[in-house]
């Protein structure tokens, strides 16, 4: 069973990670640019942010004298690399070429439910029915908000966003599984290093040949240092301490934080409806935190 103190620390660390992740949408949009004024290629943004973070990870593990990676952790870390370093950023970058950050924020609001479902199955966590009611209600609010804000119906970009959500959920759970055995910092570093044989060559091959606006490089730098690296330090630690199913519900506030950040970063307009839905979702997260969750763990590789 997860202790109350660990759960509280996990929730706060999860919130810190989510706050940094929330900047990913506007910063990725800044990096790739809209279809009418494209900036950095989506493939470069995807591979480059993981590759540079991977090189930083090698330096970090060397400076901290981290122990060698155990072979039993490789499968879960590979899953995390495919989900977090490849699938999520690539699908997200493709989508953000076609839709604005606010649209992407409401669709990716489904991520908490996806993470909770994957976590409950893979990590053998058994939340109470009341917890699932809160999770479902929170996700329903996100879906209703998306429907109320959409004027063009379902598009290919929405499909990319759904695939991004699925990829991120699988990646989060794979990393959280290992983070219970080694530190959160070592977990994300090894995830990025495992992905390097793929991300580094792609980065070199897709390096932009034409000049782009300096703001695009600012967006790329953020998603490299924070979205792909530092935020995971807090996020994986939070998932490991508080439990994947419970801490994942903090993600319910992520789309609304992304909406708020999109205003100063991209100049997108924030409407009162967004504030109302954000307060409602925060209330659901608070209720979900109070619902009992039973966690049963097995050794990695068992």
Name the features:
302 residues, mainly alpha, two-stranded antiparallel sheet, 2 strands, 74% helix, 2% strand, disordered C terminus
List the helices and strands and how they pair.
Layout: H1 4-22, H2 24-32, H3 42-63, H4 74-96, H5 101-107, H6 111-122, E1 125-127, H7 129-149, H8 156-179, H9 184-205, H10 214-242, H11 244-247, H12 254-266, H13 272-289, E2 293-295
Antiparallel strand pairs: 1-2
Helix pairs in contact: 1-10, 1-12, 2-10, 2-12, 3-4, 3-9, 3-10, 4-8, 4-9, 5-12, 6-8, 7-13, 8-9, 8-10, 9-10
Main location: membrane
Family: Belongs to the EamA transporter family.
Organism: Anatilimnocola aggregata
Describe this entry's structure for a reader.
Pfam families: EamA. Residues 9-144, 157-286 form the EamA domain. Belongs to the EamA transporter family. The protein is mainly alpha-helical and 302 residues long. The protein has one domain (4-295). It has helices at residues 4-22, 24-32, 42-63, 74-96, 101-107, 111-122, 129-149, 156-179, 184-205, 214-242, 244-247, 254-266, 272-289; strands at 125-127, 293-295. The protein has a two-stranded antiparallel sheet. The chain is globular. The two termini are 20 Å apart. Residues 297-302 have low confidence and may be disordered.
């Amino acid at each position: 069973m997860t202790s109350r103190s660990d759960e509280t620390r996990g929730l706060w660390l999860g919130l810190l990670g989510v706050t940094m992740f929330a900047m990913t949408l506007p910063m990725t949009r800044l990096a790739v640019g809209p279809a009418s004024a494209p900036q950095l290629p989506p493939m470069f943004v995807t591979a480059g942010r993981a590759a540079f973070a991977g090189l930083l990870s090698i330096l970090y593990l060397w400076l901290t004298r981290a122990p060698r990676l155990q072979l039993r952790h490789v499968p879960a870390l590979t899953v995390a690399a495919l989900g977090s370093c490849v699938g999520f950023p690539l699908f997200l970058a493709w989508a953000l070429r076609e839709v604005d950050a606010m649209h992407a924020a409401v669709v990716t609001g489904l991520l908490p439910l996806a993470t909770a479902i994957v976590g409950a199955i893979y990590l053998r966590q058994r939340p109470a029915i009341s917890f699932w009611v809160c999770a479902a209600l929170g996700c329903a609010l996100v879906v209703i908000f998306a429907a109320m804000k959409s004027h063009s119906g379902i598009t290919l970009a929405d499909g990319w966003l759904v695939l991004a959500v699925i990829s991120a959920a699988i990646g989060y759970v794979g990393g959280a599984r290992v983070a219970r055995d080694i530190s959160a910092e070592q977990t994300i570093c090894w995830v990025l290093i495992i992905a390097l044989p793929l991300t580094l060559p792609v980065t070199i091959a897709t390096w932009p040949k034409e000049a782009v606006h300096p703001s695009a490089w600012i967006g790329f730098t953020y998603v490299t240092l924070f979205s792909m690296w530092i935020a995971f330090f807090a996020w994986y630690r939070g998932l490991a301490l508080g439990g994947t199913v419970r801490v994942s519900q903090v993600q319910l506030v992520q789309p609304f934080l992304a909406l708020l950040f999109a205003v100063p970063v991209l100049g997108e307009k924030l409407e009162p409806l967004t504030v109302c839905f954000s307060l409602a979702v925060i209330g659901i997260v608070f209720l979900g935190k109070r619902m009992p969750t039973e966690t049963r763990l097995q050794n990695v590789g068992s």
